[in-house]
């Protein structure tokens, strides 16, 4: 592969550009118009600027897919005729996006224009002025810049400070990028907002440019900054002693100097050094500055001047120039340098002079390395290329530097290696072209970062007709002949890869020709191996191309090598693929009589499964069917599944089922469907692929093929059997297929493992039946493998096939049923069914005895079936469970109601654990749990549910409420439990129901014996993982009832607090002894003694106070219907029953709570309910005085509402009046009429004895009420 001058862009309308640049010239600048223009191309390749005299044209590039190159169109034309300033230089600076990432790109392009007056203008792409300033009062010679990153950061990773260089005849002005580009961005943003700030900028303070003057050089035509000169100590001392003499003083450390190369005359190349930090001020300047400061501080009458002195503002052009020291130069009085360009690594420079010479300079040592003669008016550029091969050293990449020289007089471009100086290539070019060297990349980085942006162009050639060409040089041209072979091969390989990727060919013949040409030119085996691997993975490749290329490489390979082995295997596979393509599609290719001779019982079971799948299968939707020609696999997809690195071709171990099915479909589909003849398949069975893998491919196709709409299954089974028999008859395979009658064939055992692992058990079942038939046929045809005349009708091999077929029948039925939706719908939440439509036998066996129960439980839970319906179906089969009943006949033990409900409970609990806010899932789990018929399983599973799902959240909620002393706010609840305050109330209610059911099941299970779980025969040799029901049975006999009841007490208390929002401080520590509370939130299997009926007086008082609060709160649930006069108190009665139950457990005074309940009911005015509950009180003598108090409060309220208080109070005795006075300001009481008061006083008298002091007061109250009633007061 040689160097290229590649067309990469084109100016769409060259005449229009020339008309704008040369408006007054009839010849439009003539054919040499480019030589009189100043041109700059952005390194990103999107902006091109051309300037002549006072006119500027800006062109933007756009990709043209038809020509595969950029088309530059004029976007803006501008004229500076009003200022009458000719343009002397132009430079395009791509400004980077403001981002900290290394993945950055250009945001916009700043066009920098240098004028003859020394002014530099910065413009946007639409020629809108951003900033303009005169830096020096001289014509500008050139504009150059240095970017932080190289245009190719993948080649040169060195980071440099961003700087803009404005070159004048007497000096070079350096502007730092950290000051320039924020100013340009700010000006651009101001203009975008419609504000002009150009005149308001103090550029002297913002830019702060440095001016370095050229000394000891007569003329400077061009200059470039080579960067910091970091000399060593010896060179520093040598320079100091040479320049200053023996007695000179010197610094211990060498100063940092910036090297500037000035190209001109006398000397024609000067090495100027600018001291970093600036020159020291002269003493006279310091004295003048101090005097001016003192003068400004004195009053005006003393100095004789005005009080305010207006000083002329200093501009950038008035800034003093810091002279650089020209330490040495390359002197030749007759030679005058015209141009100097710097290499990307700044170590080399190319200088063109007036004598037709190009000098290659070492900038660090200051010597001329090479002189190239015969290049008048030469234009030079450097091109740096990286080695595209991976280096052995990490992080190191080889690079090569080339010098490109364009000679307009000769009309040629010549390329030289900068290291050796040898000419590499020479091209003919137009004599009026222009070489563009772009040495900078993206500009405007805010911080130092490693950018990965690769600029598009670095070296271009622009022709007068508008064609822009790129110079492309392969790396291997920098190497010697010995080392360049592999580099050249790599370049050829990548060129072909790009050729295939871009699709630069119209026919396969062109691609074949290009591949063969590249293949014949490759010399090294490692690249040839890459070439072959690339071809084998190419989607567009045809088998003819791969056959031709592999044959070419095999002919040139000597001996045996990895490359030759791979090529031979690829050749065999390509020929085999080509043979498969050449077979013709026949409508009736292999019509033959069926000769299956299968076992009658197996065929009956197979037919039953077929009938079931047809019966339950939903109606098929008519779909578009494609012709056989359109269902074709690419050669690359065919080859990818094979391991070609061995002598025998085998399948890759990591090949997916989808990839294998595509290959198997290509090999066997048309024969199985009856569209190939037997002769075709007889030839095809001699495939180069390893025979065991061919068996595997045949099974993969049979298992994964589409069975929908299949009208001739028996014919396909016969063809599949004949294909198996044909493959089994291959040479060298009989010894693996047929073994002694009491042994098992390793080959057939591997086939059985494939069938057992199949996710589609029904096709695997048919394959197993046919494989068993073929195995028996092969055994009968090889009698010499058996000793004597003894023949065992039932061999060990046949037993293995029978066992496999039986298991596959069970799993096939399971898959058929699970593929449909259960018709029985219920009220429970419908779980999302897992994507496990196809269950393999291997999965079921590895999962263990619980696998079927778990899978069916998920299937039933997906329909939301009511647990009670499942229990009822066990007693009497229901029509809605038709599919489930079919499964139960096949798996009677795994689908018992207790087993199924236990797994459903666990599935709902797992779903709730993923979304704890959905408490409906938890309730559904408990519904399933409560319906489990077997009490031992129910009790044990309850303990598992508690430990696994409920305990952690329950403990968090209880500790939070104990800490706050009431139901917390929603924010606190979410913070600790991820539940709202309302959801915590519902959760506690559910937990209370859970513990209640748990204790009931545990108590009742003591009256029954533990059941013995049974399982189907399919798991005789399967995994021994314990099912959920066995784990539950192992827990039921070891649960501590007292510990369980302790948690029930706590749950009931917390539930009461959350429902009625009752406050009670430290409910856990105040209502439970320390010896008891330490056992809370522990495992129920712990053997600990819990005594909860004995406690100290403080705990008993706290418990009693809590229950009294709850009883008072529950009265809010009692409602009165005024229309019917009915009192509804069911909720209150239920809560009161819970309070009484807790009081009895805690050994509290139950009668006290009942008395309190009756008193509160009368106080609220529910006399009918109070009369009913009055009989429940045991110690009525204690109740009577309290009822008298309630009656007195009622009487006070009655008197307070009457108008004639004086007449009514006359009926009261003095003692009664004083008693009623003591009741004022007491507890609230519902007001009633006089009859209600009389009834209440009557009840109180019935409860008391005459010896009690309150009895006399009740009699007085009764007399007063009757007096009022009799006289109608």
UniProtKB/TrEMBL annotation:
The keyword Cell inner membrane does not apply. It comes from the Eukaryota. InterPro entries: Rab3GAP2, RAB3GAP2_C, RAB3GAP_N. It is found in: Cytoplasm. The keyword ATP-binding does not apply. Residues 694-877, 880-1247 form the Rab3GAP regulatory subunit C-terminal domain. Residues 33-436 form the Rab3-GAP regulatory subunit N-terminal domain. Keywords: Cytoplasm, GTPase activation. Signal peptide: none annotated. Belongs to the Rab3-GAP regulatory subunit family. This is Rab3 GTPase-activating protein regulatory subunit.
